[in-house]
Design brief:
With about 200 residues, this protein is of the alpha/beta class. It has a single domain (about 5-200), classed as Rossmann fold, CATH 3.40.50. It has helices at about 20-30, 65-75, 90-110, 130-140, 155-165; strands at about 5-15, 40-50, 55-60, 80-85, 115-120, 145-150, 175, 195-200. Strands 1, 2, 3, 4, 5, 6, 7 and 8 form an 8-stranded mixed sheet that branches. It is globular, with a radius of gyration of 16 Å.
């Protein structure tokens, strides 16, 4: 047994952009077709292997509703970074990142807080509304890492989250003793994940 580093990430964005699906795809390797909105928050955690050692990663899958915004500051103050998520097939969800979520997070989060922008649902090519180059330009202007993902197919999901872990390498905290660690560099790993619904209200 060994001591792990601990990392906390929030997944943030409008309702229906696929935050839960992204978190579950990364943590379990699975995708659920049936949409179930997150009314409060889901808490996922898992031990992963990185080139710099073992990390105990906690992911908070948040609701995109107004109700979440009242408790969001507490989650952000206790996290190291966030994955800002929009749906590439729904322009209003990208506009929300531009007009609300990015500023909201930066006004609340600690100074060393890190952000990644993710455009989800790229498997729905015909329905696309947000041009990739527009999103990339926005990311460069605001100093964000940018990835396009599909929770359904798994495209770039693991890459986006593991880049987040790497980006936050200098702010990892000491955690407790590890057991049942899982190497997420091996594709389709589905064991060792604990998912909890957390009542925050």
């Amino acid at each position: 047994m060994s001591v792990a580093k601990r990392l906390k990430l929030c997944v943030i964005g409008d309702v229906g952009v696929g935050k839960t699906s992204l978190a579950e795809r990364f943590m379990t390797g699975m995708f659920r077709e049936k949409y179930t909105p997150t009314y409060q928050a889901n808490h996922y955690h898992k031990h992963i292997q990185t080139p710099d050692g073992e990390v105990y990663i906690q992911i908070w899958d948040t609701s995109g509703t107004e109700r979440f915004r009242s408790v969001g500051p507490h989650l952000l103050h206790n996290s190291h970074g966030a994955v800002l998520t929009y749906d590439v097939t729904c322009m209003p969800t990208f506009s929300s990142i531009e007009q609300y979520w990015l500023e909201w997070v930066r006004n609340i989060a600690p100074e060393d807080f890190r952000l990644i922008l993710v455009g989800n649902k790229v498997d729905r090519t015909i329905s696309r509304q947000v041009d990739e180059q527009v999103a990339r330009r926005f990311s460069r202007e605001h100093g964000l890492l940018y990835y396009e993902t599909s929770a359904k197919s798994g495209e770039n999901v693991e890459l986006a989250f593991l880049e987040g872990v790497s980006l936050l390498g200098d702010v990892w905290e000491d955690s407790g003793i590890l057991d049942d660690s899982v190497d997420l560099y091996k594709p389709k790993t589905v064991t060792g994940c604990i998912i909890r619904g957390c009542c925050l209200f």
